[in-house]
């Protein structure tokens, strides 16, 4: 004990001395101006020294405890040995027994003991090496810099070896402790061996054999099941017999819902099929437009020129793809949650034909150069849009009648959103299209209102209704909060209706109206946060299901973009940000982030969820995965360069740079956009293929179905 | 809640709520704006040709990339002398029963704003060449070409308007491209796009968010801070081209030009400020009063002149803003 204390004393003296000497050095080496630096150094050194002393004391203390422990343990050695023996496993017992038996047979002599070393020597060496390291570190401290930054950098540089030294020392100490403990264990083992050796075989064997038998005991695995063969009478278990190594992760398969009217199924599938066609068509046009930014002389055909094709792209994906897709899913959801058949399937068909006709005629008219005069998404002239309007009216009547005949007391929130969306879309269209009143600048106010309500009160509202149905269904748990859904419903009507004019900030329409729009845009935080929180909290506790589902990833991406895309819209609306981003490609990125990231992803999620329920066929998981990843990566490649380039462009304009310079600046970002667009377009090909796989019979007869059919005809023939 | 379980009440409430808000923020303001609006006294209605040209502008969807609104922010100063006001659009009415009013304000500026293009670029020759293929005059342009507005004739008649198309674009064919009536109408529309002066005594709305740099530039005194090359790009390059060689038969070269190399900057300053039409006989288009139209300061004019005097092998004596200021003042006195 004395020895140890002595070493401790010596060591701490060394530490303090080195610290003091280096402090003295710093004082001597520098002039008065460096006083704060020196003080810093001194403080640092003291801190390090104290730390080292503390570590040392801790170590001494630990050893003390270990030593005491050992002393105490020596008293009941026998007890301990018995405990060791109880802890032995079957193999060890076996080994001991064999040894004992052999020993008895040979009647051998005893073995020699190894000599023990002093652990103290080791400890000392470790500590000395540690202290020498520390001394080195300290010597490096020779402050010669003045000034704040220089001082900080120096201290930082000095700290690096010090910290390295301390951590090294800790490692060493731990090593020493481990060695020491290992030695103790070995000693103990030695004693145990001696003890075992001393015991006679007769004394030992019965107990050990009994213990071995107990350890070797195993259940037969038939205690609960008995010897009967397992049978699944209820058909609950569904195991695929021939599952090889899958190329892609196996996802949960959709369940077929046989109780859906085949006539309704057909209607829904036609809606989705038409929508898919318009998606392919519209995004092919969009892809070509993106290429035109890079190669403006790609063609010189009037019908394919940029100005004419741009509205073809937007209108066909809006009214053709998204609207028909939404309505198709709506025709599934409304009867489901009302627990009653659809009021009129015939009207559903009329609506489909009218909307398809509207988009087809509209496309041709735009390409021929007949348009409404330039308002975005209002390019179809009103007689063409009237067809769409009638289609919507028919759907609205259909939905309302179905809801009126519902067998549930409450109206599920999905129906709130979807039915209201149709009503609002009709209100918007009437306000924007009735040819009797707009004549002059009022057009622009209505344009702002129309284009944004179209997006927010038609697409977003309807799609939210879809999510409120399919997300809980796919997660197999109820929506987190019905009330949050209701809050989002009313606040979205309140705030969204106000924000249309934010497309014309700083223009010549009334300033107060622009301000109202900006305030409304800020208010959108409430419904968006409510909606996002509601969806994410519904996910809560079921996150693991994402990995096993091919629809949930689409929902999740949709939810993420719902939050980020919508909040980006709010951020864009402020006057200061509008200054930078308005008129630039940032707007294009934003509209794709929202219409594509939110609406398309939600629609795809719904479509992948619903079609297998109608046809009983699923798309290959590998192509669903390809669709998902290409769409997501493509969207990011598309939007991020445009946002970045758009920002630079806006700043350039604010800087008063020549306009052409901003065009030249955008060239690489437009190229990225075309690349991202190609990814997105490719993903749509996969989507179309998936739809085809989910819809079509593959030409090869289902063996079971065919056999049943054959038996049926045979019985009929016999009956005749 | 009763409201939420009764579909009639629920959807009626939502509809009325929405219609009420629609009336407040869209319908009523729209009607008010329409009723309390009248064209400015000095504004001219579109000519018959220009009206047809506007129909082509609409049909081709030019509004997808070209705005027609000068916002009341400093960065829009390059597009007009003053911010746009409601009265600027008062003359625009419903196209017809089938089609809506086309204010053509636009929402994106992939190309330049056209509110004042008639002042900024009055040259029909330039517009025709540019419409035939924008890359003839603006190399980096991504605007579509409109060849269907033009016809190819082996021997153009006297009445035909021949378009200046470089050989690279004629594919080695014998003959000339002439402008169809549609092209001329479209150009007539573009030429008619000019901001109307506000009547005397009315307050011109201000441009907001002024650049700080501009105020700082005043302290600098010299025009050294101004980038002549950039100003040239903004105001001159579309015609005289980046290489200063102009376009054969349409826009005269500045490279090696006598006027540019002249040590006396008087004529050059006057041409920049007031335009020039003395070389029309040679087939060159008339130059607009670029300096006056764009409201260029003496410093800016000097920067442009120095760029032209020292680029593309030109090596003339640079000018100072002070002497240019003197010349500008003198010109103003001459033509009140």
What's the shape of chain B?
A: globular
CATH topology category name of the largest domain in chain B: Cytochrome Bc1 Complex, Chain D, domain 2
In CATH, the topology of the largest domain in chain A is named Cytochrome C Oxidase, Chain A
> Main beta sheet of chain A: strand number and arrangement?
none
SSE sequence of chain A, one letter per element: HHHHHHHHHHHHHHHHHHHHHHH
Number of strands of chain B: 3
What string gives the helices and strands of chain B in order?
HHHHHEEEHHHHHHHHH
Gyration radius from CA atoms of chain A, angstroms: 40 Å
Mean pLDDT of chain B: 87
Q: Strand content of the residues of chain A, in percent?
A: under 5%
Percentage of helical residues of chain B?
A: 40-55%
The count of strands of chain A amounts to: 0
Q: What is the 3D form of chain A?
A: extended
| Rg from Cα of chain B | 24 Å
Under the CATH scheme, which architecture of the largest domain in chain B would be assigned? Orthogonal Bundle
CATH architecture type of the largest domain in chain A: Up-down Bundle
Q: How far apart lie the N and C ends of chain A?
A: 111 Å
Pick out the low-confidence regions of chain A: 12-34, 111-147
Task: Write up what this structure looks like.
The complex is a heterodimer of chains A (720) and B (336). Helix content of chain A is 76%, strand content 0%. Chain A has 720 residues and is an all-alpha fold. Chain A has 2 domains: 205 residues, no CATH class; 444 residues, Cytochrome c oxidase-like, subunit I domain (Cytochrome C Oxidase, Chain A, Up-down Bundle). In chain A, helix 8 runs parallel beside helix 10, helix 9 packs parallel to helix 11 and helix 20 runs antiparallel to helix 21. Chain A starts with a helix and ends with a helix. With 336 residues, chain B is mostly helical. Chain B has 2 domains: 145 residues, Cytochrome Bc1 Complex, Chain D, domain 2, CATH 1.10.760; 123 residues, Cytochrome Bc1 Complex, Chain D, domain 2, CATH 1.10.760.10. Chain B is 40% helix and 3% strand. Chain B contains 14 helices and 3 strands. In chain B, helix 3 packs across helix 6, helix 11 crosses helix 14 and helix 13 packs across helix 14. The longest helix of chain B has 29 residues. Chain B starts with a helix and ends with a helix. At the A-B interface, helix 9, helix 11, helix 12, helix 13 and helix 14 of A face helix 2 and helix 8 of B.
């Amino acid at each position: 004990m004395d020895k140890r204390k002595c070493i401790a004393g010596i060591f701490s003296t060394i530490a303090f001395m080195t610290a003091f000497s280096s402090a003295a050095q710093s004082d001597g080496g520098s002039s008065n101006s460096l006083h704060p630096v020196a003080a810093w150094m001194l403080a640092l050194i003291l801190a390090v020294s104290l730390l080292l002393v503390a570590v040392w004391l801790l170590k001494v203390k630990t050893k003390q405890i270990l030593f005491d422990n050992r002393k105490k343990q020596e008293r009941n050695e026998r007890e301990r040995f018995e405990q060791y023996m109880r802890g032995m496993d079957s193999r060890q017992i076996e080994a001991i027994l064999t040894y004992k038996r052999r020993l008895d047979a040979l009647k051998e002599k005893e073995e020699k003991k190894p000599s023990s070393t002093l652990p103290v020597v080791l400890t000392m060496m470790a500590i000395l090496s540690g202290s020498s390291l520390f001394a080195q570190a300290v010597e490096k401290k020779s402050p010669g810099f003045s000034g704040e930054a220089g001082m900080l950098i120096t201290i930082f540089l000095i700290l690096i070896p010090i910290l390295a030294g301390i951590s090294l020392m800790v490692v060493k100490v731990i090593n020493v402790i481990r060695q020491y403990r290992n030695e103790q264990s070995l000693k103990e083992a030695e004693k145990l061996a001696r003890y075992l050796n001393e015991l006679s075989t007769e004394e030992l064997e019965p107990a050990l054999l009994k213990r071995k038998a107990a350890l070797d005991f195993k259940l037969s695995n038939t205690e609960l099941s008995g010897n009967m063969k397992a049978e699944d009478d209820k058909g609950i278990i569904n195991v695929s017999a021939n599952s090889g190594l899958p190329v892609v992760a196996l996802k949960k398969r959709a369940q077929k819902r046989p109780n859906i009217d085949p006539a309704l199924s057909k209607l829904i599938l036609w809606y989705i099929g038409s929508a898919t066609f318009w998606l392919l068509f519209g995004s092919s046009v969009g892809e070509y437009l993106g290429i035109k930014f890079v190669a403006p002389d790609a063609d010189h055909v009037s019908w394919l020129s940029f100005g004419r094709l741009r509205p073809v792209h937007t209108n066909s994906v809006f009214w053709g793809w998204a609207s028909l897709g939404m309505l198709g899913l709506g025709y599934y959801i409304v009867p489901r949650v009302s627990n009653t058949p659809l009021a009129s399937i015939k009207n559903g068909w009329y609506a489909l034909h009218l909307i398809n006709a509207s988009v087809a005629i509209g496309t041709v008219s735009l390409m021929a150069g007949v348009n409404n005069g330039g308002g975005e998404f209002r390019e179809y002239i009103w007689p063409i849009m009237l067809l769409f309007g009638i289609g919507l009216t028919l759907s609205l009547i259909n939905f309302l009648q179905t809801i009126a005949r519902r067998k549930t007391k409450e109206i599920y929130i999905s129906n709130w959103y979807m039915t209201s969306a149709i009503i609002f879309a009709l209100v918007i269209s009437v306000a924007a299209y009735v040819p009797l009143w707009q004549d002059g600048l009022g057009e622009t106010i209505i344009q702002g209102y129309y284009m944004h309500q179209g997006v927010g009160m038609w697409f977003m509202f309807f799609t939210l209704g879809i999510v409120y149905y399919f997300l809980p269904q796919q997660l197999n748990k109820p929506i987190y909060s019905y009330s949050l859904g209701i809050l989002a419903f009313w606040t979205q009507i309140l705030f969204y209706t106000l924000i249309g004019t934010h497309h014309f900030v700083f223009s010549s329409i009334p300033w107060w109206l622009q301000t109202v729009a900006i305030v409304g845009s800020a208010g959108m935080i409430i419904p968006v946060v409510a909606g996002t929180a509601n969806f994410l909290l519904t996910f809560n506790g079921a996150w693991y299901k994402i990995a096993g589902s091919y629809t949930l990833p689409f929902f999740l991406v949709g939810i993420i973009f719902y939050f980020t895309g919508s909040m980006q819209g709010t951020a864009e609306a402020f006057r200061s940000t509008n200054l930078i981003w308005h008129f630039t490609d940032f707007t294009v990125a934003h509209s794709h982030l929202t219409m594509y990231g939110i609406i398309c992803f939600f629609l795809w999620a719904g479509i992948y969820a619903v079609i297998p329920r109608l046809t009983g066929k699923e798309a290959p998981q590998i192509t669903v995965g390809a669709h998902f990843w290409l769409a997501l990566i493509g969207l990011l490649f598309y939007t991020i360069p445009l946002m970045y380039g758009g920002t630079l462009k806006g700043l350039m304009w604010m800087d008063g740079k020549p306009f052409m310079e901003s065009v030249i600046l955008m060239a690489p970002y437009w190229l990225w956009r075309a690349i991202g667009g190609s990814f997105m377009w490719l993903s749509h090909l996969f989507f179309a293929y998936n739809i085809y796989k989910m819809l079509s019979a593959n030409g090869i007869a289902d063996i079971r179905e065919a056999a049943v059919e054959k038996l049926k005809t045979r019985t009929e023939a016999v009956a005749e | 809640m009763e409201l939420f379980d009764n579909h009639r009440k629920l959807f009626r409430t939502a509809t009325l709520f929405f219609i009420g808000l629609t009336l407040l923020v869209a319908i009523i303001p729209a009607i008010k704006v329409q009723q309390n609006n009248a064209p400015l006294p000095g504004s001219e209605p579109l000519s018959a040709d220009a009206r047809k040209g506007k129909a082509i502008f609409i049909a081709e969807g030019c509004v997808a990339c070209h705005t027609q609104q000068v916002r009341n922010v400093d960065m829009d100063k390059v597009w007009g002398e003053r911010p746009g006001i409601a009265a600027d659009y008062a003359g625009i009415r419903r196209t017809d029963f089938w089609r809506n009013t086309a204010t053509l304000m636009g929402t994106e500026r992939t190309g330049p704003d056209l509110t004042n293009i008639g002042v900024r670029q009055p040259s029909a020759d330039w517009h025709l060449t540019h419409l035939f293929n924008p890359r003839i005059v603006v190399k980096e342009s991504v605007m579509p070409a409109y060849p269907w507005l033009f016809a190819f004739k082996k021997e153009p008649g006297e009445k035909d308007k021949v378009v200046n198309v470089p050989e690279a674009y004629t594919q080695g064919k014998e003959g000339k491209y002439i402008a169809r009536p549609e092209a001329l109408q479209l150009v007539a529309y573009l030429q008619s796009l000019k901001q109307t002066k506000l009547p005397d005594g009315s307050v011109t709305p201000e441009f907001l968010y002024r650049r700080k740099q501009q105020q700082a530039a005043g302290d600098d005194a010299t025009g050294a801070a101004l980038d002549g090359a950039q100003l040239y790009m903004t105001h001159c390059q579309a015609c005289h081209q980046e290489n200063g060689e102009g376009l054969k038969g349409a826009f005269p070269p500045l490279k090696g030009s006598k006027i540019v190399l002249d040590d006396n900057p008087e004529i050059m300053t006057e041409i920049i400020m007031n335009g020039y039409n003395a070389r029309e006989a040679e087939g060159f288009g008339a130059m607009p009063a670029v300096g006056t139209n764009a409201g260029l300061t003496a410093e800016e004019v000097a920067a442009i002149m120095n760029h032209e005097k020292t680029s593309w092998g030109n090596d003339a004596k640079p000018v100072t803003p002070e002497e240019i200021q003197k010349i500008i003042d003198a010109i103003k006195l001459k033509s009140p």
